[in-house]
Amino acid sequence: MEFLIEVFKGLKEADAWSGAVAGLIAGAIGAIVFKPILLKILGLVGSFLFYLLGLMGKPLRLWVRKRKLRHVNWLRQIRTDSPAITREIARSYAYLILFWISFLLWLFVLGNKLVFPDAAKPSHIGLIFLSCPTYCFEICWLRRSSRVDAILRNRNKIKRWLTQH
């Protein structure tokens, strides 16, 4: 019971919680409001990069084409291999779980900093450093998830011949 009282006292005095909550709210509102603007900006950036690709010459175009070809060949090979698809899905969810675990551990460290002010407090730079694994696992999860989406999209392109007996 005393622990809960200490937690509530720490939450009342916590300036970082108010900043974190304000950041989450601002991020959610920004994602909703600015999504069309960001999509337009990304479209313009993509057009500019496509223009630069034309200016950069043949070696860069060949490199991009080779990467696309390698990706398409990988998709063709894996789309008929059910165990490989299952393994890709499992990897995606493993990175998702690692992302959530690292995020919850980071919240735990932040909570300890606020609840126990007398204990050794990590600095703001330390908290930023401790959030790096969270971002790394998030990037890995997003890449694997997009690979799984591409596999599942291309799995529907398999032609199945129906034979009548």
Give structural notes.
With 165 residues, the chain is mostly helical. The chain folds into 2 domains: 1-58, no CATH class; 65-157, no CATH class. The chain is built from 6 helices and no strands. The chain has helices at residues 2-12, 15-33, 35-56, 58-78, 82-115, 124-155. The relative contact order is 0.09.
**Proportion in β-strands:** under 5%
Helix content: over 70%
Largest sheet: none
What is the total number of structural domains?
2
State the order of secondary-structure elements, H for helix, E for strand.
HHHHHH
- Spans with pLDDT under 50 lasting ≥5 residues? none
- Give the rounded overall mean pLDDT: 76
Write a brief caption for the model.
With 165 residues, the protein is an all-alpha fold. Helices cover 84% and strands 0% of the residues. The protein has two domains: 1-58, no CATH class; 65-157, no CATH class.
What attributes characterize this protein structure?
165 residues; mainly alpha
